[in-house]
């Protein structure tokens, strides 16, 4: 008997581009990426609401590829929103379209849509032929400033978010800013929560900038929104590329501050509570927990909550108070699911200060309960002060 251990070094290039009008004939970004890859065939999958907002998009894509030496097999429209990843039906449909287009591992799959759409189509791309080249075109604030720059894809199963999935580095991420400004206002605004999150855990200077530019961000002024999205996306991408654990083989997930509760709230509400709104609630809860558990100074609350409420983000949801037959808050089940999803010891990132995250391995349910009670009061006070805050879903 014998044992042989081999090291298999693998290097990926993570291309993240910020541009405008990516399919304009004079825009060289996509053409350069396609030339770099050397593939000769492509397929486009577009989220239906995006196509509805941009009726000329399919024709633009077709014209763009007409000037290249890459054959565009077709452009198809698929549903959007969380429902596309509710089960594997649309992944299977995507596989069928990939097969019909005769894509191979050197071919390109263009996925144009929001985060849930990119998750489902990305999983199809990662598993077809063990991986075709995915070109992500995120179209929402949330997908441009966070998930689109990541290296994960997944669908939901067993009542749990992202239970079936993979790590797969996209061939390129192309953030086209024109898509940002065609979203509904509430979606455009809600996605900013991930920028607040990454600033809190990674970059005090970015948090200070958000705080100083809050009026422009709250008004969704294009220059401020685009600058915030790009800075947030780069922090996410840089952590993945330089943080030492791009595929999460350890037990720490520093970019998931506020997400243990957020993911559970989504599943408890049958995904009627969208991810960005759930993250705002989870971020608010974990900010309070960081203070009430003694990790952070009270002043943290006075800086974080004015930003969340200034951006008109919801910071409480009734599902936080839903209880099981044993009178235990059901949201606490999210801690077990969070640990199972990553494996190893429970590891939840909390805050010691702005830009200072710390891993904790035990969460006190009593403190969580007190924080939820406090959160309810803070949210009510914010509603009384700001009558135009987004309502609880």
Outline the structure in words.
This protein has 393 residues and is α/β, with parallel strands linked by helices. It folds into two domains: 16-180, Rossmann fold (3-Layer(aba) Sandwich), CATH 3.40.50.1970; 185-385, Dehydroquinate synthase-like, alpha domain. It is 46% helix and 16% strand. The chain is built from 17 helices and ten strands. It has helices at 29-37, 48-53, 57-66, 89-100, 115-127, 141-145, 177-180, 185-190, 193-202, 204-212, 214-218, 222-242, 259-268, 275-292, 299-310, 333-342, 365-385, and strands at 16-19, 41-47, 71-78, 108-113, 133-138, 152-157, 160-167, 172-176, 348-353, 356-360. It has a six-stranded parallel sheet with strand order 1-8-5-4-2-3, with helices on both faces. Strands 6-7 form a two-stranded antiparallel sheet. Helix 13 (259-268) crosses helix 14 and helix 14 crosses helix 17 (365-385).
How are the SSEs ordered, and which strands pair?
Elements: E1 16-19, H1 29-37, E2 41-47, H2 48-53, H3 57-66, E3 71-78, H4 89-100, E4 108-113, H5 115-127, E5 133-138, H6 141-145, E6 152-157, E7 160-167, E8 172-176, H7 177-180, H8 185-190, H9 193-202, H10 204-212, H11 214-218, H12 222-242, H13 259-268, H14 275-292, H15 299-310, H16 333-342, E9 348-353, E10 356-360, H17 365-385
Parallel strand pairs: 1-8, 2-3, 2-4, 4-5, 5-8
Antiparallel strand pairs: 6-7, 9-10
């Amino acid at each position: 008997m014998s044992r042989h251990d081999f090291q298999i070094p693998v290097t990926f290039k993570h291309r993240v581009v910020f541009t405008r009008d990516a399919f304009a004939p004079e825009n060289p970004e996509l053409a350069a990426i396609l030339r770099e890859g050397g593939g000769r065939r492509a397929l486009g999958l577009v989220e239906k609401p995006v196509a509805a907002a941009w009726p000329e998009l399919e024709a633009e894509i077709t014209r763009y590829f007409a000037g290249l030496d890459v054959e565009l097999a077709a452009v198809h429209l698929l549903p959007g929103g969380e429902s596309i990843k509710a089960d594997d039906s649309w992944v299977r449909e995507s596989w069928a379209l990939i097969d019909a287009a005769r894509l191979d591992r050197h071919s390109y799959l263009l996925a144009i849509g929001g985060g849930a759409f990119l998750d489902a189509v990305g999983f199809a791309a990662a598993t077809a032929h063990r991986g075709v080249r995915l070109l992500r075109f995120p179209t929402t604030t949330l997908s441009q400033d966070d998930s689109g720059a990541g290296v994960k894809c997944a669908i939901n199963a067993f009542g749990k978010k992202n239970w079936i999935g993979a790590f797969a580095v996209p061939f390129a991420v192309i953030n086209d800013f024109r898509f940002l400004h065609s979203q509904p206002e509430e979606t455009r605004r809600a996605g900013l929560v991930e920028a607040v999150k990454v600033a809190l855990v990674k970059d005090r200077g970015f948090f200070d900038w958000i705080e100083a530019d809050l009026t422009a961000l709250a008004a969704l002024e294009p220059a401020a929104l685009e600058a915030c999205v790009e800075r947030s996306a780069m922090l996410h991408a840089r952590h993945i590329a330089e943080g030492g654990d791009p595929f999460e083989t350890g037990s720490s997930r520093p970019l998931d501050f506020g997400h243990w509760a957020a993911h559970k709230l989504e599943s408890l509400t049958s995904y009627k509570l969208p991810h960005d709104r759930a993250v705002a609630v989870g971020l608010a809860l974990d900010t309070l927990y960081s203070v009430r558990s003694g990790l952070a100074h009270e002043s943290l609350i006075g800086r974080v909550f004015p930003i969340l409420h200034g951006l008109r983000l919801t910071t409480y949801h009734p599902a936080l108070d839903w209880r099981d037959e044993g009178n235990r808050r059901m949201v606490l089940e999210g801690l077990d699911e969070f640990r199972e999803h990553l494996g190893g010891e429970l590891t939840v990132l909390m805050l010691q200060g702005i830009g200072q995250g710390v891993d904790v391995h035990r969460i006190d349910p009593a403190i969580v309960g007190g924080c939820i009670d406090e959160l309810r009061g803070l949210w009510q006070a914010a509603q009384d002060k700001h009558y135009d805050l987004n309502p609880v879903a």
